[in-house]
Amino acid sequence: MSDPVLLTADAVERVYRLGRDIEVPALRGVSFAVDRGEYVAIVGSSGSGKSTLLNLLGVLDRPTSGQVRYDGRDVREMGDTDLAALRNRRIGFVFQSFHLLPRLTAVDNVALPLIYRPGTPRSRRDAAVRALTQVGLADRLEHRPTELSGGQQQRVAIARALVTDPALILADEPTGNLDSVTGLDIMTLLEQLQSERGTALVVITHEHQIAQRAQRTIELRDGLVVSEAPA
Amino acid sequence: MSPREAVRVALQALAANRLRSALTTLGVLIGVMSVVLLVAIGQGARSEITSAIEGLGSNLLFVLPGDGDFGSGPTRSRFVLDDVERIDQRLPGAQRRTAGSTVGAETLQVDGERVSASVQAVTASYPDVLNRELARGQLFTESDVVTSRRTAVLGASVAEELFARQDPIGRQVSIGGVQFRVTGVLTRIGGDGSPFGPDQDRTALVPITTGQRLFGVDRLDSIFVRASSTAAVDADREVIRAALGERLDEDEFSVVSQDEIIGVVGDILAILTGVLAAIAGISLLVGGVGVSNIMLVSVSERTREIGLRKALGARTRDITAQFLLEAVALTALGGLIGLGLGIGGSHLVAAFAPVPAEVTWWSVALALGTSVAVGLVFGVLPARRAGKLDPVEALRRD
Fold it and tell me: The domain at A5-230 falls in which architecture?
């Protein structure tokens, strides 16, 4: 684990096929690397290909050509089961629309990724309670998503991302559904986790204000990296 | 995902949609209940009839008109009273072991009371050969038969309805408009009155010759022979064949043992039970289609959940297993409740209806096994569809 690089994208292309002959290139050769513990913002307007890039970095999808490597391993050479394990162990997702299961309590929502790895119900609950405490929701354990505010729901989602102790938190417009004050709180929380726990943080956003907070900004336009600048 | 965890997740999902789960499971529930209940009734009927035939004694031979093929049409009997004598003489032993009877439906009347009954014109040997006992009085004698005396022995039900609590012995009864003197009453055998075949207590015995004159016939409907032992059944059968063969063609009569009748009746009822089970099985199948349908709706409703679970590390097989387990949990639950209702219903039928019902272990095993299998078979399609969902597409869905 001496290699400081966590993940690399190397000449990544992703082409979507619509119907028989229409090909839409969403990414047209994107290359960059993210180090362990690094805080990177990927910024771009809608249609720039940032959602596609998110799916590739989250290994929910494979590139049409080029390579995405995690810990030096090429994602394209891994099977679906390996990718599922990679997502479960190394990546924590934070979505714009939270994606909490409405019928589960906060603590059960947070424990959700843990059911796909070995462990007892007791240990899962303990870990979920710890994660919720860390995001400041120790008093909301048994609340359901509908009983929580937007900011609280996103905190539950962040707790769910960090409960697996991942190497990377991948946040997709994490403040997009929140007012600016609450959004700022959420960004502060994510940054605090990144600096305290040494977890890499990749935030995908269309807001330059948010992007400026990162150690490094990668700007996408029309499927290409147009600028890469340390903040 | 551990199996225990998978079961928990599946039950959680079903509990979140209680009404829908209950309605979906109803089809399977009704199917299983029908299988258990109908098979229980079929089985009960079978053992009821079998024991009724067995009650006649295991060494009884029936001489029936026709070649004994159940597929052939009704055959007019060509037996006459002399045939009884002819068979009896050939059989070893001094005891009378052969009886003949001719049956007709007549109205019995005493003062204002009228009762319809099957009047059996029989030889004097009939009660001995067919194990029928008299509760009171006595049967007619050989000489009553020879002289065609108008005497009658009443079945228990008939005696009760015509004479209430009075003693019928020595009283007059009108049978088909002719006056008979009652000499005895038979012991009750029917008990609750079996729904299969005529009530054995709603009968009257009259001397064969008197009865033949009453009915205006000179034939016998059937001849009964009691073999000296179960082992002698086959030997006696040959004697009967030889005796009757002198006078009748081989296809004009047949000799069947009690075992053979039980076998044929048992086969018919087994087929009947099988058909009932199959019809109930179809409703189980329809229930399965309902489960499949609802699971497909559920998969499409929970697309985002599936996408999320995949993003969090669920493998294709975790998702497939989850939905398959939901389907099986639905059908197994329906199976268990249906089984309970089926067994309860069988007891209810046995308690209140004349049809007996016996729950058999194989119908229970079949119903439960089938309901789980239905869940597996009809759950596979939706579960595979869920497992194959692309997480990117699934997460994007509203």
Answer: 3-Layer(aba) Sandwich (3.40)
